[in-house]
Design goal:
The protein has 812 residues and is mainly beta. It is built from 3 helices and 58 strands. The protein folds into 6 domains: 126 residues, Immunoglobulins (Immunoglobulin-like, Sandwich); 107 residues, Immunoglobulin-like (Sandwich); 91 residues, Sandwich (Immunoglobulin-like), CATH 2.60.40; 95 residues, Immunoglobulin-like (Sandwich); 116 residues, Immunoglobulin-like, CATH 2.60.40.10; 185 residues, Immunoglobulin-like (Sandwich), CATH 2.60.40.
Length: 812
């Protein structure tokens, strides 16, 4: 048991020593050093929230070195602050302040010597003792009686209506009495409340009241009353102050207010009133006023309406000035423009100056339809009346009417009747629809009326109409009853074509039905075969037999009635066009070459023609082109319709060497190159040409004899290369053309018969079946089905179908 007590004692003693080491070891020595003789005491005052200094006497006779300074409160043996200079250099003394009391608010300077306390609190009040230890001299003690002054709160000034004057800006009429109350809460000792008007003290009465706080504490309120009698203009903008003071250490809290007076304006005047005005012209009118304090508020009034947006107010010395930027209106004629000066605090004391206006203005025009008409129920054949109301000064000398910005003139035969300020439209049509205006003019100018939009209801008409002999265009007129243009659509059997029928109608709620007219019968198409959406109907039509080709009609009806003529669509049997024939290159002036061909069968649809030159695409409505060439060039020629393109005609080596005939169809993709003749071979070429002409004459004679014998031409095989020239060209004896009737096939060595012109196929035939052995140009884009390039039909050339693909060129 004894050893346990020894162990506990051994552990407790170091712990106690460690705890006591956290504060200066000398703190407990002060009780033994308490002086037995009286200590001098000094009284010091401090203000809450301010800074205070507590003096400490540190003088010695022998000018001994300072060792330590300790501060105690009253008889407490625990120091609150220490300044330890033992064995330390000057400026490196050890400082300690009780964190539960002053903390970092206290600081000591040995050179002063005094203890400075920041942000003084009321709890800091009390008697403090300063103990000074020297290295050799005896310890010195001094006491400070520290009294805390609590300043009063900031005064609050109220008016007779208990309004805080620091929060509002109240103005008082001139000549009235101003009664105010100043209240000051708290303060130790009790504050003294004083009123100042500018720098002059004015008489006031004071009383003290005690109130109970929410926690039961007693609050002291000091109240002072003041009355400023008979306010004059001298009191305007004067400063009135209430001060509460209870010490000389800090400035007394003060509340200031500014006296505002309301004074009536003495005069108001509009300048430059003697002039006439014009509508549409901007004027600046000036008004001035004096005598009001604060300055009078100037407002402009036209009749009983105030003008706000175009005014500008400013001060010109003692004068209040307002400038009105104003454009007179028609309604201002004969009315008054007034400038009013008033103090808003004295609404019954406003004064004004008035100006009677003389205003000239351009016509004010208003257009309306006759009240007996319902604008939503006007249809073709009705009569429509308009009235144009005009107000002008001076009087109107001209009145004009407009339809869609086009002037209307009196024309009784056309149903346009003008009289005074009215317009009558007799038996209106849908062309009468649109915007109507009237315009009037006088000496001040001319003005147009509002727009009245006339909507004439009419039965449906086709929106898209093909003008025969030309390309597509839009027109709004009803097609004539005879020779109605048609849309042409080509299709082979079991191929669907999409027909879109769009109409114009008012009202636009439209019902559709379709009909089919063949050479035998006219029949209705079931409603399940087509769709309708607004003013558009769509039909997908698929011919299955030859009897399914004919005319499709799209009929529409609305509230007014049924369309007088249907939208027509011609369904024809069609295929790709045949290749071009007898293509010839002619040398023109300079570097220009003209290529001319004969068109083949168009496949039953309008066709156009395309030339590909060095990857450049050239389109033409006729099978001829004019090209600018600077070197031998390959030209590829096509015929194109909505079903696609023909087989290509490839003209290789086109250059400027006179006339060359090209009738080649490239089936294998191999080019047949032209051979340039050297000057040495020109003589041999001439000789060969002469022999060739003799041989040609003999062959032509044999061919004519054979042609007189009737024979049924056989269906040609599908050759890969063959070349023909037309009979007319051979008979003309063109020396540059070498007639070739039969050439060797570059794939099979066989001869091909010669064919002349073939008859044109009727449109009702199906599309021509093209040989799959034909190698077409892969760079040429094919036309997709049902895509129109052009519906214009070119003039027809002779329709010789070219089946050969060789090139003959002569350089003579």
């Amino acid at each position: 048991m004894l050893w346990i007590l020894i162990l506990v004692t051994g552990i407790g003693i170091p712990t106690l020593v460690s705890a006591q080491s956290k504060r200066p070891a000398y703190f407990d020595e002060d009780a033994a050093n308490e002086p037995d003789h009286p200590v001098p005491i000094v009284s010091i005052q401090g203000v809450v929230g301010q800074k205070a200094t507590l003096p400490c006497n540190m003088t010695t006779q022998a000018n001994d070195a300072l060792s330590m300074v300790l501060w105690f409160k009253e008889d407490s043996g625990e120091p609150l602050y220490s300044f330890d200079a033992r064995n330390r250099q000057f400026g490196k003394e050890k400082v300690w302040s009780a964190p539960h009391y002053w903390g970092n608010r206290a600081s000591f300077r040995a050179t002063t010597p005094q203890l400075t306390i920041q942000d003084v609190r009321q709890s800091d009040e009390g008697v403090y003792r300063c103990r000074v230890d020297f290295r050799n001299s005896p310890t010195r003690n001094a006491k400070v009686n520290f009294t805390i002054i609590v300043p009063p709160a900031k005064p609050v000034i109220y008016d007779a209506k208990r309004r805080d004057m620091s929060q509002i800006s109240a103005a008082y009429p001139e000549g009235s009495d101003l009664e105010l109350v100043c209240e000051v809460h708290g303060g130790k000792p009790r504050p003294r409340v004083v009123w100042f008007l500018e720098s002059r003290i004015i008489d006031a009465s004071t009383e003290v009241r005690e109130t109970q706080g929410p926690r039961g504490e007693t609050n002291v309120v000091t109240i002072s009353y003041v009355t400023v009698k008979n306010l004059t203009r001298d009191h305007h903008r004067a400063k009135l102050s209430c001060k509460a003071s209870n010490n000389d250490l800090a400035p007394p809290p003060t509340t200031n207010i500014t006296i505002e007076l309301s004074m009536r304006p003495l005069m108001v005047e509009i300048l430059d009133k003697n002039k006439s005005l014009s509508v549409g012209v901007r004027y600046e009118v000036k008004c001035r006023s004096a005598g009001s304090k604060p300055p009078a508020v100037l407002t402009w009034w036209r009749a009983s309406k105030q003008l706000k947006k175009t005014t500008r107010n400013f001060q010109d010395g003692v004068m209040s000035v307002s400038v009105l930027q104003w454009i007179p209106s028609v309604d201002d004629e004969g009315k008054f423009l007034a400038c009013r000066a008033e103090n808003p605090k004295l609404p019954d004391a406003a004064i004004e100056d008035r100006w009677k206006l003389e205003v000239h203005y351009a016509p004010i025009v208003t257009l309306k339809m006759d009240s007996s008409l319902n604008p939503r129920e006007i249809k073709e054949g009705d009569d429509v009346y308009f009235e144009c109301n005009v107000k002008a000064n001076p009087r109107v000398y001209k009145l004009t009417w407009y339809h869609e910005d086009k002037e209307l003139r009196h024309n009784a035969s056309a149903g346009i009747v003008l009289s005074d300020y009215s317009l009558a439209l007799q038996v209106v049509s849908r062309e009468s629809s649109g915007r109507y205006t009237c315009r009037a003019a006088n000496a001040e100018g001319h003005e147009s009326s509002n727009v009245v939009n006339l909507q004439v209801m009419f039965a449906p008409i086709c929106k898209h109409v093909l003008n025969s002999g030309s390309s597509w265009r839009h027109q709004n007129a009803t097609p004539p009853p005879l020779n109605v243009p048609e849309e042409l659509h080509g299709a082979s059997k079991h191929e669907s074509i999409s027909l879109v029928c769009e109409v114009e109608a008012n009202p636009s709620t439209v019902a559709f039905h379709w009909t089919f007219n063949s050479s035998l019968d006219l029949s209705d198409i079931p409603s399940t075969k087509f769709t309708s959406d607004g003013t558009v109907s769509r039909l997908n039509y698929t011919p299955a037999t030859d009897m399914d080709y004919g005319t499709l009609g799209c009929w529409a009806s609305n509230l007014v009635g049924q369309s007088k003529q249907p939208c027509l669509y011609q369904a024809v049997a069609a295929g790709r066009p045949f290749p071009l024939q007898n293509c010839t290159a002619y040398n023109q002036s300079g570097s220009w070459v003209r290529i001319s061909c004969v068109e083949g069968y168009d496949g039953g649809l309008p066709q156009k023609f395309v030339a590909i030159v060095d990857k450049q695409r050239l389109e033409s409505a006729n099978p001829y082109w004019e090209l600018e060439l600077h070197k031998p060039t390959t030209v590829t020629l096509y015929a194109v319709n909505m079903k696609g393109s023909s087989d290509p005609v490839v003209m290789e080596g086109v250059s400027l060497k006179g006339v060359a005939k090209f009738t080649e169809i490239s089936f294998t993709g191999e080019s047949v190159s032209s051979v340039d003749m050297s000057p040495i071979l020109i003589g041999l070429g001439g000789t060969a040409t002469g022999l060739g002409l003799i041989v040609t004459g003999v062959l032509m004679a044999l061919w004519r004899r054979h042609a007189q014998t009737p024979a049924k031409p056989k269906q040609p095989q599908q050759p890969s290369v063959a070349t023909f020239t037309s009979k007319g060209e051979e008979e003309d004896g063109n020396p540059d053309l070498i007639p070739t009737t039969i050439l060797s096939n570059n794939l099979k060595d066989r001869k091909l018969p010669v064919y002349g012109s073939l008859p044109r196929r009727p449109r009702q035939l199906e599309g021509r079946e093209m040989s799959h052995d034909v190698l077409e140009d892969s760079d040429y884009p094919r036309a997709t089905p049902n895509t129109f390039y052009s519906l214009q039909r070119p003039n027809r050339y002779s329709e010789t179908i070219i089946r050969s693909a060789a090139i003959q060129e002569s350089c003579i």
